[in-house]
Design a protein that fits this description.
It is built from 35 helices and 26 strands. The protein is α+β, with helices and mostly antiparallel strands. It folds into 4 domains: about 120 residues, Calcium-transporting ATPase, cytoplasmic transduction domain A (Distorted Sandwich); about 325 residues, Calcium-transporting ATPase, transmembrane domain (Up-down Bundle), CATH 1.20.1110; about 160 residues, Rossmann fold; about 180 residues, Calcium-transporting ATPase, cytoplasmic domain N (3-Layer(aba) Sandwich).
Length: about 900
């Protein structure tokens, strides 16, 4: 690949060198790894382990782009023309407003870019490495040549590795080779230096996926020096895709722009026909077009979604794709794993059944052979470990078994010295078993553990106090059923002895002819917060469903404790699901709350059936086999602690704490963000339409042009600025989780929004025109300043009133959104300043109003606020926009296969 090794010289064909020589060339100890100082040196030399992306826009370019919009360019041209014809003050004012508007747009876009970049950093893949003798997790970009990387099923290979240790390690290399069948890796050197990538069986390459087993490798290349880096042009730079909401708003903005331009042309022509000056009408038309077109809407949506996603991180929900923030509010089903998500993932052994499974552990003599061998199996057939501080680390189930054996006096470290592990067959979701082989006094012993039905079917005998006896499979499974009924997760343990290692190390050879040893019942108690989260789901119209590989009785017991199911709830098992046609599943699926003994591959069938019935599905998962279901789901949710890299890459959202309650918190936050986005749209478009109606209708009523260009631009700047952005931090409304999910295809203008925009926009224009007519025909010389003030302050009353779609501002309280209150106060002060601050009247062409005129302006501008409050009162009474009231619920279309009972549920 043309790079240099750490020691200098051209890089060798790594696959032709044995592991020890690889370690020597890279100057690393395979058992201990690199020291921190050496890592810093190599990072400085080789750079970060990243594939270069397309160059990001610099802040200067981002600022310049704010002035490339067509309407802004037209406004700049208008300023230049004004200067040429002698309107220097107008020209200067327009330039200042354009500059301020550009700076505000830059700040918005820069913050959004930073927020998205921070999310990408949080979502960066990680790697498990051995450094300075300690196993730790680091960000994949921090890897350097010579790092020792530990791999297991589900990992994305983080760099190019020379594999030196394997245990049934298989890697899917389709991303590089196109070969769909996973490749089993070996450790020995290969002779041919010209082997193609697919035949280098002792190498693992960046971007490929570990599908089975585990292993270790030493990093030979990072970043652009990897094989993936060599073909990085095939990957390209990942473009920022717009969310569905952004796309809908962009189309709306285009249509509104065409309508606004048409109105501006009419205003321009009518003004000329009335004898208005050409320059004035040109500037008025341009200013009105700039004010009317909501070009900032998509940018504000991006800011809201990005900042909302950052807030979600603080609640342990990492959003990988921004559209997920928007679509969380539409979730109708949450299909969740049990272990670790609904439960604490802190397993403990509650009950042991040894021998023929008829005697409880407590009733067996301490020295009984079945019990001793069972504890030995729990300690040895185990990948958990104890740190120097005494902490047990590893899989929760493995850790629980380790602790149980240790507390009974069987120390894994001491046992391993006498019976070291010789080989293993990793757990597989299809077999539901795993096996480890150890040296023993009689030769070799294999311990097999897994689901009772999967282990018992491989057993011919059972070990009892009196010796080996024929297994009573029915009795064993009944005992397992009884333990599961008590809410325990049940594992069966068996063993087999050989004089030497089997020739073929595969399940068919090792996991047959077993002798049954005992049952272990483990308890993973439900999370305290999960029951409350389940209740909140139900009140929000979201159906929680448990999907687990555990025994049906165990699943039912935990589901009952959490409130997911009751005594009459039907449990569907994996075999039943496999035999069930999709059409039958679609007919039954709304009545199923528990799936047990389900293989990860079957999750996609559940997702498809729910989606065919019109449901919007969030699906959790952590394994490699969960990835297709996570990708197919409307919201794929991966586990951040126990999840695999593959699952996290496929998901839309990652739970950093693996907690079901976090999903519910994310749904709440998603609903809040979408609500606030709707509020901003409602505010901005209504106010823009009010400005358009004011200018457009005045000539038809025989009135002069009510506002100058500087007035229009000023109102657009101050009202769309701080008050609009402050709506993004509006707290969640009361009852936000007591309303049903939003239909995913529902327009953002649904539930009375477009009616509000039309009616209140017209009212805003009508109040402004009434102000003009009253002042104009009563002989007041201040009529233009009064219209300017009324229109600006009407928008402040409007933004306060629309903080809730149904609740009165007086119920919410003025102080419940302090940033918005501050923005309104500041904007009002600025508006008053244009009238009374010395020198401002020359710039804004205003005159100081008398106390009576100012009071009249305040009274008239409050009409919009009162009207919106009346509108909300009518909504609360159910007399207006019935579907808009969250507490009354949304009207939704009948869904496929839905019965009246389903709707009631």
């Amino acid at each position: 690949m043309g790079t240099e090794t750490v020691t200098g010289g051209p890089e060798p064909a790594w696959h032709t060198i044995d592991p020890q020589r690889v370690a020597e060339r890279l100057e690393v100890d395979l058992d201990g790894g690199l020291d921190p100082s050496e890592i810093e040196r190599r990072t400085a030399r080789h750079g970060r382990n990243e594939i270069r992306e397309q160059r990001r826009r610099s802040p200067a370019r981002m600022l310049l782009d704010q002035f490339s919009d067509f309407m802004i360019l037209v406004l700049i041209a208008a300023a230049i023309i004004s200067g040429f014809v002698g309107e220097v003050e107008d020209s200067a004012a327009i330039v200042v407003i354009v500059l301020i508007n550009g700076i505000i747009g830059f700040v918005q876009e820069y913050r959004a870019e930073r927020a998205v970049a921070a999310l990408k950093m949080l979502a960066a893949p990680s790697a498990t490495v051995r450094r300075a003798g300690q196993v730790t997790t680091v960000a994949a970009p921090d890897l350097v040549p010579g790092d020792i990387v530990l791999l297991e099923a589900g990992n994305v290979v983080p760099a190019d590795l020379r594999v030196f240790e394997t245990a049934q390690l298989k890697v899917d290399e389709a991303a590089l080779t196109g070969e769909s069948v996973p490749v089993e890796k070996r450790t020995g050197a290969l002779a041919d230096p010209a082997l193609p990538i697919g035949d280098r069986l002792n190498m693992a390459y960046k971007g490929t996926v570990v599908t089975y087993g585990r292993g270790s490798g030493v990093v030979t290349a990072t970043g652009m020096q990897t094989e993936l880096g060599n073909i990085a042009t095939l990957l390209g730079a990942e473009g920022e895709s717009k969310t569905p909401l952004q796309k809908r708003l962009a189309k709306f903005g285009q249509r509104l722009a065409l309508a606004a331009i048409a109105i501006c042309v009419i205003v321009f022509v009518v003004g000329l026909l009335r004898g208005e000056p050409l320059v004035l009408m040109f500037l008025t038309a341009v200013s009105l077009a700039v004010a009317a077109i909501p070009e900032a809407l998509p940018a504000v949506v991006t800011v809201s979604l990005a900042l909302g996603a950052r807030r979600m991180v603080q609640k342990n929900a990492l959003i990988r794709r921004l559209p997920a923030v928007e679509t969380l509010g539409s979730v109708t089903y949450v299909c969740s794993d049990k272990t670790g998500t609904l439960t604490e993932n802190k397993m403990r052994v509650e009950r042991l059944c040894a021998g023929d499974a008829l005697a409880e552990a407590a009733s067996l003599p301490d020295g009984s052979e079945p019990k001793e061998l069972l504890y030995r199996a729990l300690a040895l057939s185990n990948d958990a470990a104890r740190t120097e501080s005494g902490e047990i680390i590893g899989d929760p189930t493995e850790s629980a078994l380790y602790v149980a054996a240790l507390q009974a006096g069987w120390d894994k470290v001491a046992l391993q010295a006498a019976a070291p592990r010789l080989a293993e067959i990793p757990f597989d979701s299809e077999r539901k078993r795993m096996a480890t082989l150890h040296r023993s006094a009689g030769g070799v012993i294999a311990f097999v553990k897994g689901a009772p039905e999967a282990v018992v079917q491989q057993c011919d005998h059972a070990l009892s106090e009196s010796g080996t006896v024929p297994i009573r499979a029915r009795v064993v499974l009944e005992r397992a059923e009884g333990m599961a009924d008590a809410g325990l997760r049940v594992l069966a343990v068996a063993f087999r002895q050989w004089q030497q290692l089997p020739e073929e190390m595969n399940p068919e050879q090792v996991e047959t002819g077993l002798t049954f040893l005992g049952l272990v019942g483990l308890l993973d108690p439900p999370r305290e917060e999960a029951r409350q989260a389940v209740s909140e789901c139900r009140s929000a119209g979201i159906t929680p469903v448990m999907i687990t590989g555990d025994h049906p009785a165990t699943a039912r017991a935990i589901a009952a404790r959490l409130g997911i199911a009751d005594d009459g709830t039907v449990v569907v098992t994996g075999p039943e699901l496999a035999a069930m046609p999709l059409e039958e599943l679609e007919d039954r699926i709304r009545r199923i709350r528990i799936y047990a003994r389900v293989a990860p591959e079957q999750k996609i069938k559940i997702v498809r059936a729910l989606q065919e019935c019109g449901e919007f599905v969030a699906m959790t998962g952590d394994g490699v086999n969960d990835a297709p279901a996570l990708k197919r789901a409307d919201i794929g949710v991966a586990m951040g602690i126990t999840g695999t890299d593959v699952a996290r890459e496929a998901a839309h959202m990652i739970l950093l704490d693996d907690n079901f309650a976090t999903i519910v918190s994310a749904v709440r936050e998603g609903r809040r963000i979408f609500d606030n986005t709707r509020k901003f749209i409602r505010y901005a478009v209504t106010c823009n339409s009010g400005e358009i109606w004011t200018i457009f209708l005045a000539p038809f009523l025989g009135l002069p042009i009510p506002l100058l260009p500087i007035h229009i631009l000023w109102i657009n700047l101050v009202t769309d600025g701080l008050p609009g952005l402050a709506l993004a931090v509006e707290p969640a409304e009361r009852g936000i989780m007591q309303r049903p999910p939003r239909p995913p295809q529902e327009s953002v203008f649904a539930n009375g929004m477009w009616q509000h925009i039309v009616v209140i926009g017209l009212l805003m224009g009508a109040v402004s025109l009434f102000t003009q007519a009253w002042a104009y025909y009563t002989g007041s010389a201040h009529w233009q300043t009064m219209v300017f003030t009324v229109l600006a302050l009407s928008q402040m009353g409007h933004v306060l009133a629309i903080r809730s779609e149904h609740e009165s501002l007086f119920q919410q309280g003025l102080l419940s959104n302090r940033p918005l209150l501050g923005a309104v106060v500041l904007t009002t002060a600025l508006q008053v300043g244009t009238i009374y601050v010395p020198g401002a009247d020359d710039v804004f062409k205003t005159v100081p109003l008398s106390a009576g005129e100012l009071v009249a302006c305040l009274a008239l501008s409050s009409v919009v606020f009162v009207a919106v409050e009346i509108e909300k009162w009518l909504i609360r009474r159910g007399w207006l926009y019935r579907t808009a009231n969250p507490l009354r619920g949304y009207d939704r279309p009948e869904r496929k296969g839905e019965t009246a009972a389903d709707v009631a549920q």
